[in-house]
Design a protein that fits this description.
Chains A, B, C, D: Residues 41-60 bind DNA. 4 copies of one chain form a homotetramer. Chain A has helices at residues 15-35, 42-49, 53-59, 63-86, 92-108, 111-123, 133-153, 162-182, 188-203. Chain A is built from 9 helices and no strands. The longest helix of chain A is centred in the middle third of the chain and has 24 residues, at 63-86. The A-B interface holds A 36, 38-39, 122-123, 125, 134, 158, 160-161, 164-165, 167-168, 170-172, 174-176, 178-179, 182, 190-191, 194-195, 197-199, 201-203 and B 36, 38, 122-123, 125, 134, 158, 160-161, 164-165, 167-168, 170-172, 174-176, 178-179, 182, 190-191, 194-195, 197-199, 201-203. Chain A binds a DNA duplex (21 and 21 nucleotides) through helix 1 and helix 3.
Chain lengths: 208, 208, 208, 208
DNA sequence: TATGAATGAGGCTTCATTCAT
DNA sequence: CATGAATGAAGCCTCATTCAT
């Protein structure tokens, strides 16, 4: 879809170019997390990055591309943290527990990332076409569903619609984080335990 | 801050004033649901209401107040539908099931309301202070938690943090609706069953 | 193609609306004539009109619509002046002479209109689709060609391609005006005579 | 105003300097012809030349100078083609005919040059002062007028204002080319004949 | 010589809000 | 009560130009 990256017309990017892009993405992440999507103007972002507004236009096709990059980086980072932990486990039950635990754990130490991610996923609206995050989110749900299905085949989990439950779990985790964001007094570790426990009971085979 | 002239600030509002406000709120709801929060300008809303933009400013303090009213009405309507159904049940278990069922049921026949509610709750950002919806959502969660607690006392539910589970349930319902919105082929009734079942397993006392 | 005029959403326009549009069109005409198309920004136009930039946006869909209106008005005015004079004549020869004479005469007393017209016809480039002036110009040329053809049928004019000659005549008139614009010392009346004479000799039947 | 550093201002320019300038001028010509004046940004031109934007700034004072050079080269090339052909003829009548014919012929096989020339002559607007093409165009007209005058003295042409007719002829040729550009189906050779014929009749002495 | 990078001016639009009628 | 009209702030983007390397 995208025909040219920035600086327009070049394919390769120098080291300094990469650094600037990273810096701007970082600034954008913080800005979105702090003032919210709608107030995260290029002016704001530029100011926080200590650069001029047009530098952003120079390194990115436009605001849309910048925000997509921000989100993409957040997805990557999150998954890079979760994947080894989840697949370090062997049983489906342990994988699900680790999924929830690691996601909560990651975001609990990356508050800004979480806020930015939620804001962007929720608000981003490209000029044409549909949100590019739908796919990422869809893939994540599919991955989760796959684990659930395996657990059912192994007799670990009872019978339910894996797809529906995957969505429920995803939402529950996001909800827990949302609560924690809204209320600092919440102990996320306790919450995590409760959530893991809740899910465990909900999906585990009766015999288990 | 609030000017004491004009409708807001008055104690008594004429019938026509009430009617206009209702009409505008209705139009705003539809607009937000249809074109999304960010594209729901006063101009758009006014056009759909068949009135002039300034009428809105006349009847509402500003866009912020209007959207707050929209959300407030949606909360009220939803709760007005759910309350008798939930409390028509006696056991905590049945109440929870009815809570989930009735919420899904209400929104499934009020698609516009659901869309508008999500958009507003998600995007609304007052110029000063924090979101006024936090309270409403908080109250709803508290209500749900109360039922859960009762179920625990009655021995219906096992031991868990009622507050945390209340949030999880709320999120799960919203998630299910979101899925249904995104994918028309989903059968919401089936989904409702799965969700109720999921929650049932998660919270019901082992002995149950 | 255009779905709504300004103020957006209304069909009828009040008197004051009409007046403002006329005022803005007038200011735009002058601005384009004076500083040239490329420097005729909305800011410039607004300043000359003594109004705020956004007033233009309020009354017109955008810069494109404004300039189209400017051009449309110029075409209309020009033709309103020429038509009765041209068709006040009966013979094709006289009609052609009057065509040239009246066009020169009109623009010689509407310097600004001429400049604006040339600038817009030359520079205007709509965001999508092709120039809407092509048609107007085409029609004018066709009209001229029709007269030429009639003259040939009546034996007044010799044999030539009417379409090609129509273009030549049109260009010649524009060229003459361009000269006059560039050099104030030129006497346009003399020039007009020369031009009429030139064309006369070029097209008149040998026997004539 | 002009800074004395760097290439411009130097008396001697290296071979590589000359080559670069030529390359840039060529790219600019093509760009202007293809995408039109207003979209012919330095970025576009640089991209087509396969060089970086700043190279242009290095070799030319600015965009203005570049475009002036482009136009100057086009004028030169055109005249280099026309001159021997026109003055290969002896009689004024033949010279005029050859003038028209060779100009049409040159541009018909240099479509890009014609497009670029028209775009630049039409759109170019220096930051200060007036268009530098006025002079070139003026000289061409003067040259043409000189031939016309000679034709009158020789009794070949009838009495008319040579200056005015020179302009008319120039415009007519440009108009014919414009038509041809706009409509590919036009046979330029036929058109050329019609034009030559038209002019012939217009200026030739009655006795001729 | 060449260039990647950065800049700031300026352009068009959208929008909530205000005000006189 | 209602509204047409006007406004100014703010947003994003494009572009010629400059500068250090």
């Amino acid at each position: 879809m995208r025909t040219e990256s920035s600086p327009r017309g070049r394919k390769r990017s120098s080291f300094i170019e990469q650094a600037r892009r990273a810096q701007i993405i970082e600034a954008a992440t913080e800005t979105v997390a702090e003032v919210g999507y709608s107030r995260a103007s290029l002016a704001e972002i530029a100011q926080r990055a200590g650069i001029s507004k047009s530098v952003i236009s120079y390194h990115f096709e436009g605001k849309d591309e910048l925000l997509e990059q921000v989100a993409a980086r957040l997805f990557e980072e999150t998954w890079a943290y979760m994947e080894p932990r989840v697949y370090g486990e062997t049983s489906a039950g342990a994988q699900i527990r680790e999924w929830v635990r690691s996601q909560l754990s990651f975001f609990s130490s990356h508050r800004v990332s979480f806020l930015a991610m939620v804001e962007i996923v929720t608000h981003y609206q490209p000029k044409e076409g549909s949100s590019p995050f739908a796919q990422a989110i869809e893939e994540e749900a599919a991955e989760l569903a796959r684990i659930l299905r395996k657990g059912q085949q192994d007799g670990e989990f009872r019978d339910f619609d894996p797809r529906a439950v995957a969505v429920i779990i995803g939402q529950a985790v996001e909800g827990a984080l949302g609560q924690w964001i809204a209320d600092d007094t919440i102990d996320l570790d306790t919450h995590a335990l409760a959530l893991v426990d809740f899910i465990d009971h909900a999906i585990r085979s009766e015999r288990g």
